[in-house]
Specification:
Elements lengths: L4 E4 L6 H10 L3 E4 L7 H14 L3 E3 L7 H11 L6 E10 L20 H4 L3 H18 L3 E9 L10 E8 L4 E7 L7 E9 L2 E6 L6 E5 L5 E3 L8 H6 L10 H21 L13 H19 L5 E2 L7
Parallel strand pairs: 1-2, 2-3, 4-7
Antiparallel strand pairs: 4-8, 5-6, 5-12, 6-7, 8-9, 9-10, 10-11
């Protein structure tokens, strides 16, 4: 019967070429992040998706976690009130060793800016942190004041980035990511505070969402537990009390994309609950953020526009 969808999980520099080629040949696309290495290429992918009307899913898999979707739904439901403060961090230790990469071995593509992109840490995990913020809050980062570089001596690529954030609604935030924190495994953590309360989520404890409502005791939300909203319930695959995480997050993103693709082909309206997966536009927003953070750092951390850099 032939292929139905093209999945792109190749080095970053090839994402644009393969994505546009697949779309031009009539294939819906599922692509790893970042969508591209450059703004021009990201804009071209977005324009091609709009021109062809095909589905483009970007695999920011953390958006598929039930409690991340619970947080998104609570914000949309007004339970946090007006968003005022955001803190996000993504801390890993996998690149903490001074001999990573092995100086006597072949250079891995991620360590080659021509293939891996202008900032290793921002492209690899910074885009995840940025996307998580946008997914949960529904807000865009307008300006960034960033410090991007490396903390492992003699390394030629970025392994650290820290930034202050200004959002489109006046909220403030902080952002830091690194792959060189010795001993740390995979700590992606988000805190969002509004006039009505705060939510906190950590990827290493993925089935718990802490909610601190104003003037009331702290609550802990769990997949399919009390207070689960429909968006999170749709992403919860098993009964309450059983762990769900990394693999299920990917599965939820893939199944949502499959519903959108099937609906397009059948010329029917897709289930609206399935339309929360990241798209090419989300990918463009991530590339804009990386570009602005790198430019800010090059200008000694000066406040730098994000929202106006490419798409607005």
């Amino acid at each position: 019967d032939g292929a139905d969808v093209v999945a792109i999980m190749t080095p970053n520099a090839s994402h644009h070429r393969y994505s546009v080629a697949a779309l031009r040949h009539g294939f819906d696309v599922i692509c790893d992040k970042p969508v591209t290495n450059t703004l021009a290429d990201a804009l071209d992918v977005v324009a091609t998706v709009e021109e062809t009307g095909l589905v483009f899913c970007l695999t920011h898999n953390y958006t598929g976690y039930p409690m991340v979707r619970q947080a998104r739904a609570m914000v949309a439901d007004g339970q946090l009130g007006e968003i005022q403060l955001v803190q996000v961090e993504y801390v890993q230790g996998g690149k903490a060793a001074a001999r990573d990469p092995d100086p006597e071995g072949a250079l891995p593509w991620r360590y080659d800016p021509a293939r891996g992109g202008p900032s290793l840490v921002l492209g690899d995990i910074g885009t995840h942190a940025h996307n998580l913020v946008r997914f949960v809050t529904g807000r865009d980062v307008d300006e960034v004041a960033a410090d991007v570089g490396h903390i492992v001596a003699n390394r030629l690529v970025d392994d650290y980035a820290g930034a202050m954030l200004r959002f489109d609604n006046g909220a403030r935030g902080s952002f830091w990511v690194t792959q060189a924190a010795t001993g740390v495994e995979n700590c992606l953590r988000l805190r969002v505070s509004g006039t009505g309360g705060t939510v906190e989520w950590m990827q290493e404890v993925p089935t718990q969402l802490i909610f601190r409502p104003a003037g009331a005791p702290m609550e802990i939300r769990t997949p399919n537990g009390p207070g689960t909203l429909p968006l999170a319930a749709r992403a919860s695959r098993i009964v309450a009390g059983h762990p769900e995480g990394f693999h299920e997050g990917f599965a939820n993103v893939y199944s949502d994309a499959a519903e959108a693709i099937a609906a397009r082909r059948a010329r029917r309206t897709p289930d609206p609950m399935a339309l929360h997966f990241p798209t090419a536009l989300d990918g463009l927003k991530g590339v804009e953020f990386v570009d602005a953070a790198v430019r800010s750092s090059s200008n000694n951390g000066a406040w730098t526009s994000v929202a106006g850099s490419a798409s607005n």
